[in-house]
Specification:
Layout lengths: L1 H6 L5 E7 L8 E7 L17 H14 L2 E7 L1 H7 L1 H15 L6 E5 L11 E4 L2 H4 L1 H22 L7 H4 L5 H10 L22
Parallel strand pairs: 1-4, 4-5
Antiparallel strand pairs: 1-2, 2-3
Helix pairs in contact: 2-6, 3-4
């Protein structure tokens, strides 16, 4: 995708992705990456399919060699106020606003675009498998959010956020029953995510 767009004259192609949409706690985090065509970063792939150590190593290469990378988020209070989809799109919009250089084309993971931006764009379903820049964004977003949740785990260790990073797991639900909701939980997710469990990471 990036090669085709470069051949059409676009110079700053930004891939956008987010992580944390299905979590019970914590922010939704987005990242934007403009890769440098002269500095190839190998092994970029869907971040969810990678080992944590590999993600960290490749994230470092992306940060060192990309033309531009940005990270932005919406916290749980914003998610409760405007819903998770709008919060995800808002976090991506913030990534674009922070970018230097500004992108001239956006590749956006999923099927919802950023209609408020006057930048040409394309939505890409399963984009983290199909686009290098979206895959790079998925890696940066996941590494950032996982590290954030590991830090927050120290404040609320009973919920196991160092392992489940806020997703619904058996341990997470058991802790909710015993201790109740923290200020970092998404209160609008109480019913929607009930009885949906993930394995601990």
């Amino acid at each position: 995708m990036e090669k085709r767009l470069l051949s059409e004259g676009f110079q700053n192609i930004m891939g956008l992705d987010e992580v944390g949409r299905g979590c019970l706690a914590g922010p939704v985090v987005a990242a934007g990456v403009i890769l440098d065509p002269d500095h190839f970063v190998p092994d970029i792939a869907d971040s969810k399919k990678m080992r944590a150590d590999d993600r960290e190593a490749i994230a470092g290469q992306i940060r060192n060699h990309a033309k531009c990378w940005t990270v932005a988020w919406c916290d749980n209070t914003a998610i409760d106020a405007i819903n998770i989809l709008q919060a995800s799109l808002k976090a991506m919009t913030r990534c674009v606003a922070k970018a230097l250089p500004q992108p001239d084309f956006l590749l956006i993971d999923g099927n919802r675009g950023l209609d408020s931006l006057l930048i040409r764009s394309q939505t890409v379903v399963k984009g983290d498998d199909r686009s290098a820049s979206i895959g790079a964004a998925s890696i940066l977003a996941k590494v950032y959010r996982d590290n954030l949740m590991a830090d927050l785990h120290r404040k609320y260790p009973e919920f196991g956020w160092d392992k489940n990073v806020g997703y619904p797991t058996v341990r997470h639900y058991e802790a909710l029953k015993r201790h109740g909701y923290t200020p970092l939980h998404r209160t609008t997710f109480r019913l929607r995510t009930d009885r949906i469990y993930r394995k601990e990471q």
